[in-house]
Design a protein that fits this description.
This protein is α+β, with helices and mostly antiparallel strands. The protein has 7 helices and 19 strands. The protein folds into 2 domains: about 230 residues, outer membrane lipoprotein receptor (LolB), chain A, CATH 2.50.20.10; about 130 residues, Phosphorylase Kinase, domain 1, CATH 3.30.200.100.
Length: about 375
């Protein structure tokens, strides 16, 4: 059986370097390496099953709101260094990042992803690998800032923040904020994040990301940060981004890998022939986010449906797909969700369910146990 990667809009490199995902668009961008000192200790461990509440600090939550607003309102460019940590293996990349409201472009200049370019503009995402034709990658129902705003509201219900000792990153004085669940789920320490927020601009210039086990899995850092002053030539900035019309045109030649359809279950069912999976019991704090379609082969129609759920920071995606008997289209056995966990369940009707998220495999299996795939879907 062939092994094909799975992706979704909160976990592909395009959503970036977040997800989907994500305190806000500001936090979606920060998964990499850092070199300055300050709050560098690993996440504090929690005994298995312990659910001690996390005490939040209102000042830290205001800093989170500030960095979200800064990242969604400022135009800037920076060198962007990332390190993903997979056990003893590290994947490091260096890139040049350009950001403006609703738009992003990243060009990887060295490391494991050298030559790759990715980005988004409004509701459309793209990627281009080593001078190959640009691929229209994802079409979503809402702009990243709109998605992030909704998730920020959910996050404030499930997560709290506290201040850690201040630090300096590349000469920039920073407030350091730790973000954790107010009430940890059973047998979990994380996920959690530590953010270094530049006091001058409000931008997050460094992030440490920890998974549900409390292990450091991502480090990120922005350096050589240049913020565009209000009134500077907007035309030169616009030229740096791939325009939506270009992506729509590219999608006619090579269709979207993932199409989000908000809450339109009937449209998803009609497109793929399989209704989106429906989870009847989720971990505390998770809410429905969207449904969509996914294709594993650009030459074929979409073969999987998906439903996405989030708690503001953590995202769980459940796929439903059916084997066709074609070896090139069989159920994938690996995925590119980075450090997330995957669980699988085979239904009697031949449909395979996959759940992916930063949760213990037992939790994902429980989600799949409480997942059904409706045979009919009413139109909205």
């Amino acid at each position: 059986m062939s092994s094909r990667p799975l992706t979704n809009s909160s976990a592909t490199p395009v959503l970036l370097a977040a997800s989907v995902v994500v305190v806000a668009a500001a936090l979606v961008l920060r998964d990499s390496r850092a070199t300055d000192s300050g709050a560098d200790a690993a996440a504090p461990s929690t005994r298995s099953g312990e659910t001690k509440p996390f005490v939040a600090d209102s000042r830290a939550m205001k800093l989170l709101e500030r960095t979200w607003k800064a990242d969604n309102s400022l135009s800037y460019s920076a060198d962007y260094t990332t390190t993903a940590i997979y056990g003893t293996r590290r994947m490091e990349t260096k890139a040049r990042l350009t950001r403006a409201p609703h738009r992003l472009s990243i060009t990887y200049v060295s490391g494991d992803r050298e030559g790759l370019q990715i980005g988004f503009n409004e509701r459309w995402y793209w990627r281009q690998d080593n001078n190959k034709p640009m691929q229209a990658y994802v079409e979503v129902a809402k702009r990243p800032d709109e998605m992030a705003q909704r998730r920020m509201g959910i996050l404030q219900s499930n997560y709290g923040a506290r201040l850690l000792p201040a630090a300096v990153v590349n000469g920039r004085p920073c407030d350091v904020v730790e973000l954790r669940r107010l009430q940890p789920l059973a047998n979990e320490v994380g996920p959690m994040k530590r953010l270094w927020i530049d006091r001058n601009t409000g931008l997050t210039v460094r992030t440490d990301s920890f998974n549900h086990e409390g292990h450091l899995v991502m480090r990120s850092q922005l350096s050589n940060l240049q913020v565009q002053r209000p009134g500077q030539d907007s035309n030169s900035t616009t030229k740096k981004f791939v325009q939506p019309a270009q992506m729509v045109e590219a999608a006619r030649k090579q269709p979207w890998v993932y199409e989000e359809m908000n809450g339109d279950h009937a449209r998803v069912h009609k497109t793929v022939g399989i209704a989106p999976p429906q989870v009847d019991k989720l971990p505390v704090g998770f809410q429905f986010d969207s449904v969509g379609t996914h294709r594993f082969d650009a030459e074929r129609p979409p073969t999987a449906t998906l439903a996405r759920y989030c708690d503001g920071l953590n995202v769980v995606t459940v796929f439903a797909l059916k084997k066709t008997g074609d070896a090139e289209n069989e159920t994938p056995t690996s995925c590119d969700f980075g450090t997330a966990t995957m669980a699988m369940r085979q239904l009697p009707n031949g449909i395979t369910l996959l759940a992916v998220g930063d949760l213990p495999v037992e939790t994902l299996q429980n989600i799949l146990t409480n997942t059904t795939v409706p045979t009919t879907v009413a139109s909205p």
